[in-house]
Every structure is written in C-alpha cells, then in structure tokens.
C-alpha cells in the first residue's frame, strides 16, 4: 500500500509541483499521512410540476402548451479525493486533489433541468461531464491556509454536495484551532463550480440572482467567523460575509441539548441571518432579518421537532449559490426542507417533524423522517424597478410541504460503505407564491471506500 501511495503521489506532483518540491515530498508525513477516498453515486431524480410546464432544456424552444410538465434524470457520479499529509517542520506544506466524473444514464432534452447534468445551448443535456482540481495547503501549529479549489461549510458560504457531483469554491480559506473548542475561519473566493457543471472557475451568484430579469454574477465573496463549543451541551456560531456591491450578511447560531434523565433530552436550535445591501447595491435595496427556532424532544430512538421561522422585510431571504444556483447549502434555517425554503418576503412558517432511528428496534443503519410545514408570506416583494426581486412574489402567498424520507447505511461486512437514501416531497402553493405545485422523488445510492 505504501508503494501505491508513493506512485499516486508522484503522478500528482508531476502535474502540480516542481521537481524541487517533489524531492522533499517523501519526508515526514506528506505521503505517510495521505488519504485517498472514492465515492460512487447513482442518482435518480423526478420532479412533476403538476399543472405547470418544465421550462428547462428543449422546452424553452417550444410553445408553453407543448412543454413537458416534469423533469426526470438518472445519473452516475464517480469521485476521487486525495489529501496529503504535511511536510515536516514548523511550516508544513500539503496538497489536495480531486477528480469527478458525471455520466448520463437516462435523460432527454424535454426532461432535463434537475441540476444533475449540464445543459447545452441547444437544450440537450450532456452525456458526460467532469472536473479536476486541487489546492495547496500550509500548516503552522493549529493554523491552516488553503489556496485553490475547496469545499466550504460556513453557514454564510457553503458548498453543496446534494447532487451527483459536489460544488467547489475557488479562493483562499484560513482555519485556526489554537484554542480548545474554538474554530476560527475566514476566506475570500473569486469563482465557484456548481454541482451540475464542469467549469473549474464558474460563477458565484445567489439563489435568487439567477431568477431575475437580469441575472447578476458576483466578483468576489468574503466571510469571517467561528464556532465555539462553549460547554459539552452548548455550541455558539457567529459569522459575517460580504458580497461585493451586493450585501453584507451576518449570522448567529446557538444549539443546546439538555438531558432530562433516562433516554430523554430536549434540544433547542436558534438560527438568524441579518442582510443589508451595500456598495453599489446591484440587487437593489435589501433589508431582511430571517430567523428560526426549533424545539426537539428526544426519547430513545425517537425525536419530535416543532419549528417556527420568520422573515422580516419586503425582500425574500436570499443566500449564496454556486454556478447555476440550483443547489446551495448556505442556509441553515429550520424550515429549509426538501423542496421549499419558506423564505418569502415577510413570511411566517411552522414545521412539525418526526425522526426515528430503527437501529434501536433491531434494524441497525436504518432511519426515517416525516415532516409537514406551512407558510404564509405577509408582504409583497419590492416592486422597485432596480430590485432583482421585483415581481417574484404576489400578495398573500401561501404554501405547504410534506416530506417523507428513508436512509440506510451498511456499517459492517463486505458491503460496508454502501448507503441508500429515498425521499418524497409534496409541495402546494397558490399563484402568489414563487414555489408552485410539485411532487418530487429522489433515490440515491452511495458507495464510499477509503483506498488508503
């Protein structure tokens, strides 16, 4: 296995580092501490728009009455992720590299648009796509600096991996763990690659930025913040981000789990975002406060959660997106569920959710969840001509969503690393709400393996 590590490493170095760097690469833990991970993902996605058309792919060239009313695709994704150790010394150097390949199993110009395949200018989905990239890493003590393509998980700037391939950001990321229980991080990024595209340096935008009459792309995004494990039961988070000439956004989060004796516990999660326009205000005026409070009661393998979410302001709560904006993880409010985020202007929403871990009932690795959420937008979006949100919502928008999901992971034996997920979402909304009527089915089979 050690020889295999060195062979793979030599190939990576040949394309990314100089001969001088390669000469010292085998010292210390650069090779010995390296990891190579493999993931194969098979993904089936079906979204039925009920009485509305699918406007993606070839449908946009057809009269509205002739457009298909659904999106359906099956894809296969393959990912290799390499992470080296660090060279010895007070200042260590490391390397990350990845290769991803997405393959079309079943699709068509009239059924595409799921975000799992790139769509060409002619409206037909690609049969295959992929991306290759990497990042250089520096380490000094508990401080790490990374430059290149990377994933991020900050609540104001997070890459999504809920499609066939993963989203990536391009830029600089700094992390520090010098203090026990405290993570400090910050970054500045100038490009991104969405899960459904092969661009290494694609666009950075927002979820609503692609919906307006004049889609806006961001030049750069920066964020700074941290997470503090204050006690064994309490975690606090605070972040701030700046999208050049778009907005300034702050996030606060608190999570507390209180044991009640026996197998019972109470969990409280509070999340809040404050967003205001800044600089040239290219999206128009923005002044929103979006927050959610979730109360969960646990008893053995069961958990019941009640959540309330509120958006204050005349604009919807918008958040960062990679590439085409179809997939993002930069929102952690409680009522961001399977299909809808319940983030319309002035919206109030509530959710009731039930989770069950069937491992305690003799089915290890199997879990399920069911939820129902309802929301009502209390104000219309800004109608100012310069606002990118103009015309997206009407007055008194109402909607509801019910989700059902199953997950199963094989934890031991020859099939260890195999995971299956199935989810079904039903969403209904009136004509004043942006999210309309859909029935959505997702089936995902993952097989992950640590090669070394």
TrEMBL record:
Assigned EC number: 3.4.21.-
Disordered: region residues: 51-72
Presence of keyword Transport: yes
Gene Ontology CC annotations of this record: membrane
InterPro entries documented for this protein: OM_porin_bac (IPR005318), Porin_dom_sf (IPR023614)
Keywords: Hydrolase, Signal, Transport
Enzyme class: hydrolase
Entry keyword Coiled coil: no
Protein family: Belongs to the outer membrane porin (Opr) (TC 1.B.25) family.
Protein's name in the database: Porin
Species this chain originates from: Pseudomonas fluorescens
């Amino acid at each position: 296995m050690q020889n295999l590590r060195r062979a793979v490493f030599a190939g990576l170095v040949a394309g990314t580092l100089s001969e001088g760097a390669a000469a010292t690469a085998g010292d210390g833990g650069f090779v010995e501490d390296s990891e190579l991970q493999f993931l194969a993902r098979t993904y089936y996605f079906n979204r039925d728009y009920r009485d509305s058309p699918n406007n993606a792919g070839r449908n946009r060239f057809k009269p509205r009455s002739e457009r298909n009313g659904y999106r359906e695709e099956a894809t296969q994704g393959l990912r290799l992720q390499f992470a080296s150790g660090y060279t010895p010394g007070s200042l260590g150097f490391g390397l990350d590299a990845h290769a991803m390949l997405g393959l079309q199993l079943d699709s068509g110009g009239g059924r595409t648009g799921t975000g799992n395949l790139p769509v060409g200018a002619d409206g037909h989905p690609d049969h295959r796509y992929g991306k290759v990239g990497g990042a250089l890493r520096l380490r000094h003590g508990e401080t790490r600096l990374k430059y290149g393509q990377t994933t991020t998980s900050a609540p104001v700037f997070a890459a999504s991996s809920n499609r066939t391939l993963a989203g990536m950001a391009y830029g600089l990321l700094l992390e520090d763990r010098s203090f026990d229980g405290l993570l400090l991080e910050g970054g500045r990024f100038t490009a991104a690659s969405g899960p459904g595209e092969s661009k290494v340096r694609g666009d950075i935008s927002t979820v609503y930025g692609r919906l307006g009459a004049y889609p806006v792309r961001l030049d750069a995004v920066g964020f700074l913040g941290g997470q503090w494990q204050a006690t064994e039961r309490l975690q606090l988070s605070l972040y701030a981000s700046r999208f050049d000439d778009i907005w300034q956004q702050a996030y606060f989060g608190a999570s507390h789990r209180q044991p009640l004796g026996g197998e019972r516990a109470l969990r409280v999660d509070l999340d809040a975002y404050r967003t205001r326009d800044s600089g040239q205000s290219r999206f128009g005026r923005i002044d929103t406060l979006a927050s959610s409070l979730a109360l969960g009661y646990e008893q053995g393998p069961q958990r019941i959660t009640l959540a309330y979410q509120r958006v204050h302001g005349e604009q919807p709560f918008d958040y960062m997106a990679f590439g085409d904006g179809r997939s993002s993880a930069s929102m952690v409010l409680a009522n961001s569920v399977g299909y809808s985020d319940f983030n319309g202007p002035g919206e109030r929403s509530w959710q009731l959710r039930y989770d069950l871990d069937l491992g305690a009932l003799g089915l290890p690795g199997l879990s399920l969840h069911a939820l129902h959420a309802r929301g009502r937008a209390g104000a219309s979006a800004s109608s100012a001509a310069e606002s990118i949100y103009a015309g997206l919502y009407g007055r008194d928008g109402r909607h509801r969503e019910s989700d059902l999901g199953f997950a199963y992971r094989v934890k031991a034996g020859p099939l260890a690393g195999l995971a299956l997920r199935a989810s079904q979402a039903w969403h209904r909304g009136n004509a004043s709400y942006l999210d309309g009527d859909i029935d959505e089915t997702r089936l995902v089979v993952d097989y992950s393996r640590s090669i070394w």
